[in-house]
Write the structure tokens for this entry.
Amino acid sequence: MSPATPTPTLTGNRGLHIEEPLIFEQGHPDKCGVDLPEPADKPDRLGGLARSGPIGLPGLSEPEVVRHYTRLSQKNYAIDSGFYPLGSCTMKHNPRLNERLARLPGFADLHPFQPEATVQGALAVMHRLSAWLLGLTGMEAVALSPGAGAHGELCGMQAIRAALDARGDDGRRVVLVPDSAHGTNPATAALCGFRVRGIPGDARGRVDLAAFKAALDDGVAGVMLTNPNTCGLFETDILALSEAVHAAGAYFYLDGANFNAIVGRVKIADLGVDAMHINLHKTFSTPHGGGGPGAGPTVLSPALAPFAPLPYVVHDGAGYRLVEHVEGNARPFGRMKGFHGQFGVFVRALAYIMSMGRDGLHRASGDAVLNANYLLARLGEALTPSFEGPCMHEALFDDRFLKGTGVSTLDFAKAMLDEGFHPMTMYFPLVVHGAMLMEPTETESRDSLDAFCDAVLALAAKAKAGDAAFFTHAPRHTPRRRLDETRAARHPVLRWEPPAPTRAAE
Amino acid sequence: MRYLPLTDDDRRAMLARIGAASVDDLFRDVPPAALSDATPGGGFDALPDHATEMAVERDLAALAARNTTAGSVPSFLGAGAYRHHVPAAVDHLIQRGEFLTAYTPYQPEVSQGTLQYLYEFQTQVALITGMEVANASMYDAATGVAEAAAMACRVTRRKRVLLSGRLHPHYRAATETFLRYTDIETEALDPDPMAVEDLIGRVNPGTACVVVQNPDFFGRLSDLAALADACHAEGALLIVAVAEPVSLGLVTPPGAMGADIVVAEGHAIGSPLNFGGPGVGLFATRKKFVRHMPGRLAGETVDEDGRRGWVLTLSTREQHIRREKATSNICTNSGLIALAWTIHMTLLGEAGFTKLARLNHMKAVELVEHLETVPNLKVVTPTFFNEVLVRLPGHGAAAIVETLAEKGLLAGVPLSRFYPTYPELADGLLVCATETTESADMAALAAALTEALR
Amino acid sequence: MSTLYFTEDHEWISVDGDTATVGITDYAQQQLGDVVFVEVPEAGKVLTKGDEAAVVESVKAASEVYAPVSGTVTEGNADLADAPAAVNEDPMGEGWFFKLTLADAGELDDLMDPAAYESFVKGLE
């Protein structure tokens, strides 16, 4: 049985899904959504550099603007509206207390270059967040300023490069990266002037310890590992791995993307880590915002701490100070970002951490791992788990269960959209075929997980029953059906252009 | 614990289904030596336990109350962060959960909202910068400039980057840091607000790009057309940074002056100051360079039923596919701040944006009139948008700023905050006015400076 | 009369005297899916066997095309800039990538003939 395409409406609208033109197609030059005072009429001081001719921006009144963006919002899936099991992304609930506190004028209405005496509360927020991150990881220092995870990786790897340079070691230019790593790892290593040497995984989904040790030589600057790894598994040999790295004179970078599995349970310092970034927008609940802003504070070991980038906050008898230039024995490798980092994100993360506390974070990582193992147990009956459990906070399946059905991982995911669920991460990690990586997080209820499992098991049964067309033409009920990505890439249309006749008239 | 839905009954039933004895049992792959919470005495004992919403709110509100907000006193602070009035609708709309709590739009069928506003954002950015295409944003302008310099090296296949001494010192530092361990060489000129920089004389066939700012860090507006011509004559690119995006409503845009890449800090439109972050980097270039451009791009296409829609496109430039050969290691943009920016821009429209820009400039012209009444003070910026550099001969600007802050007046940003090793700049003060600056504030500043400089 | 050779990286080389034309095979284009962009080398570029010579991108993947033999590029296929679909539709014909003048005809001995390539591809399936 293949459901019929819904009967088209006369307008193209479908109930709550309303077709919304671009702002450029509905604006009018005479409309404006703000009322501004009249500027004075004095001679300008532009030196003859005043703009000539119109810009071409559309004008809309406030009610039209509110409706436009409200309608657009209704075309988006979000954690607020449903289960979002994107592996490696930690799509947990975003508490609204975080939002309220970040908007207090005492935080939101601060200029970055106010005198220190007028921003002691803001510096205290940065200092207190730093203390929490150091307490939870056992590390020596933290650089708050990186703008997101990949930027934090760059911070950690640049600190490693700076430490090597400081000891005059210019022969180490190789970084070991497991084949299962996020794409950001090799991209970051390359930016630091390192060459990447891939490390294969073993049959258990872990780094092959023997191959790893064989790859370690005196040309190796460091290793970039993810733990729990991108297969959702804890690296059981982690202590042996870090010991071998240090014995070889290299540094250990840990990709903290999966910190949510172990926060409040494992101190990163105890694993022998030299640097790790922390995604505040994953582990510490700040919103993903449709693709940022995040924040990627990076914790550093005593060996790398002197090289932490500017700026950072210190507390002495007189109060909090923002260190913006080299001082004391510090040898910062530079500055990563403008101003003082993602301050608004810091406030949100601190509100979350204080809300959860030591005991709450411990329980959260426990529930995150429990929820993932529950998915592994329930879905393992019909899907094909790639590795034996227990898993950590995410469960990895591959597409063996779809073999011979004519249904791909992508088709399966698109059918999930019709059932009201955001799909899992697909085709990552690269080490298994047709990967489906599911990360439920601790903020999903058992009912929510059961509803998801029921839907996925029903879909798996349908695929195995041979109804490929149900999948290959999914989704049917979403604001748009499958989009033609080939056309978008072959003939890129990256901005709106006025229709040709209007242009000719200009 | 209010964010955790599982009950003890749930946990028991789920563990039974899994076949595990306890939640701790699920952590059996973690070496015991690494499990801090199991250690007697606990590795995390120094950390406090969970807190109620009321308690956290009280605690952090107390910290917020220790700050002097920029809006509560006359404020003339700029230097890359500009305080503007943001309409109420902006913050209301960006807090809709469908925007706030969505991920990057990897499933376009259920992400058309994000994709459409990114496409509109890209168009607005291209229009105001005078460029052909723009991406879906960068972290901020500082990282955007760094990425632009790296991009220019890819386009030209050259390895030398020349930075103006009038570039925002944070943009300069972030660029130098970003490129520090690559094979790209950066040369940055000294910050000299009085001299005319000879950038043209330094462009040669090895130059990948020249990076300038307009208005520059000291407030001065310049015509960059001759520099653009000189760059192009040598096969180099001109990168123009814009710290105050509102200026683009009144000033000839970099694209019209011949820029090849424009990077702007968008933060000042749509977002509160937020102590400097998060920001949003606007990034625009020429169409022919689009495949060298970092960052995400939304592009138009059609769906299976032939209806118009949007997708992320040209993603083969990105790290998840190209890995070590990617154009950048970046995987997020600044989606929500880009949304705030585009909503504010849509509310403004052509009429509002150009009027806001004119209003800012006229406020600055008025501010200069006030400042010119202060004895022992020199306004040194000849042509400007909404910010100027003044010199206070014989005085350290930082000390004057501290003195005035104690009197409830945020007078400006002293250059010594950025250039502590340049004693000759210690008397320099950046002073800015926006539409939020009242005439009475300007009079108060002039009076306070007159007294302090006596 | 040209002779056809293949590499294990799924490139084909059609040799006529000391001139060779290079492209990717039908198997390669099928694996890539819809090709959306091709970057070809400029005339005059000197390539050593194994050098990165071109880049081919589909929606989801990007691959380098390595020089199967050493030589000097005489022409890149400029038509691919506007019509990358030719790589899918006619990989052995209009979808060619670049032409070069051979530096060392002896290098051809290391490559596969059509029959060897056919069995090589069969072994992959």
